[in-house]
Design a protein that fits this description.
The protein is 45% helix and 13% strand. The chain has 21 helices and 13 strands.
Length: 445
């Protein structure tokens, strides 16, 4: 009998979607098609899209009304982020629970709240950490986006008492506890379509050269260096255009980030807005390929921050899918991989001259070399198709079960929040290996 999976998303899928809504929409679609699963995607508000192959249900964002009825019809559930805290029915549910850890929000929030008074930051961090520990204790199977992320989460799971003789005996490699299910790309290559930028947007001519920033302006990104690089190039490349795909987040619950105001102000002060730099509304998800195919270079820059080491830049998957040459800040998993494949040029954090040089190098690359790059990108994209990357999750759903230590709660070790906090400090200072060593000593004692 097919497993009935309930995926709960804190963002509603719609015409315009950010990363979480995209991920759960695509996971639902891929699992329904290839995992012999009956999938329901639950999201706040009334559904705005018509799904293919799975069910889409709404629930009340404020109260969670509607979730308990959906839980009653599920054999397993998938959750992430603050969902267990906001909707206690999910935390109490007896079904096996998959926890999606692709977004290390504890690290992101360090940057988001960095300009608040330190006591306020510390208070918020305690809440974030408690939420994270709740997820680590509740899950029966965990998924994350990359192998470096898996190392990070193994350390956190060790601190939460989930690396123990029960989970080790079930699978010494611990893949039965946590495995990698990254963001993917559509199984089919993007179809050609009419121009979306060149000759369409006022101020961008058909012959202009477009650098495209395909995503939001979050506080851990570095659009300011991008603006300075374009200002430096504009004198000798008057047809250069930088386009930011979206300024206002499609989820109204997400407050504006300070990076947005800083970017708009710097663009104005440099005299770039409306001449060399253009700000768009959030691009409709179904139309994103048209915008990217109009781009000569795809750009993503970030700051030197602990979030970077464990980030998985989902916008880069769209760059790969549409075979755009990339300029990326070094330091994260995908940037290193794409550079090794010859698909991206890497730049140091905050280095305006390096960004300008990398952009110009791609703009001056001969057409034959760019076509060879596109062929390599298409091969790389096939390996990252959603139908492929969901394999570990599909395997779990063929026989969903409680984790071995959760099935024997009286005997499994449980660590206090104080010890979890100490483990977090060790993790930040000395890395996952040090946490694992300390936990082994604790278990021996």
């Amino acid at each position: 009998m097919a497993t009935r999976l309930l995926i709960v998303s804190h963002e509603a899928p719609g015409e315009r979607m950010s990363g979480p809504a995209i991920r759960y929409w695509q996971l639902a679609q891929a699992l329904a098609a290839g995992a012999d699963a009956v999938v329901t995607l639950a999201a706040p508000r009334s559904p705005q899209l018509s799904p293919s192959g799975f069910h889409l249900a709404g629930f009340d964002r404020d109260t969670g009304a509607g979730l308990e009825g959906l839980l009653a019809e599920a054999d397993a559930l998938l959750v992430s982020g603050y969902l267990l805290r906001h909707y206690p029915a999910l935390a109490r549910a007896p079904q096996p629970c998959v926890v999606d850890l692709y977004d290390p929000f504890v690290l992101e929030n360090l940057e988001i709240h960095a300009n608040r008074p330190l006591p306020d930051q510390a208070a918020q961090h305690r809440v974030d950490l408690a939420v994270q520990v709740g997820l680590l204790r509740r899950g029966d199977f965990f998924v994350c986006a990359s192998e470096p992320q898996r190392d990070f989460w193994l350390g956190m799971l060790a601190g939460a008492g989930r690396l123990n003789p029960y989970t080790f005996a079930a699978d010494p490699a611990l893949r039965a506890l946590i495995d990698v299910v990254p963001f993917g790309v559509p199984d089919e290559p993007p179809a050609p379509g009419p121009a979306a930028l060149k000759g369409v947007v006022s101020g961008i001519a058909p012959a202009d050269q477009v650098v495209y920033w395909g995503g939001g302006l979050w506080d851990w990104f570095d659009p300011l260096t991008a603006l300075r690089a374009v200002a430096a190039l504009a004198a000798r490349r008057p047809n250069l255009r930088l386009v930011f795909a979206g300024v206002r987040h499609p989820n109204p619950a997400v407050p504006p980030m300070r990076r947005v105001a800083e970017t708009l102000a710097l663009s104005d002060s440099l005299g770039l807005t409306g001449k060399h730099v253009f700000f768009g509304e959030w691009v409709p998800y179904a139309q994103r390929a048209r915008y990217l195919q109009d781009a000569d270079v795809a750009l993503s820059l970030h700051l030197d921050h602990v979030e970077t080491r464990f980030a998985f830049r989902t916008r880069l998957l769209d760059y790969l899918w549409t075979a755009r040459p990339m300029v990326l800040t070094a330091g994260d998993t995908l940037a290193a991989e794409f550079a090794a494949q010859g698909l991206a040029r890497l730049v140091p954090p905050g280095n305006m001259a390096a960004v300008a040089a990398a952009i110009e190098a791609w703009l001056d690359t001969p057409a034959a070399e760019l076509e060879a790059l596109r062929q390599k990108a298409r091969v790389a994209a096939e390996a990252r198709a959603w139908s492929r990357v969901v394999a570990p999750l599909a395997a779990f759903l063929r026989g969903p079960r409680l984790a071995p230590d959760r099935a024997a709660p009286a005997s499994a070790p449980r660590l206090s929040l104080g010890l979890v906090g100490k483990a977090w400090q060790v993790l930040r200072a000395r890395g996952p290996a040090a946490v694992l060593r300390d936990v082994r000593l604790y278990l021996r004692r």
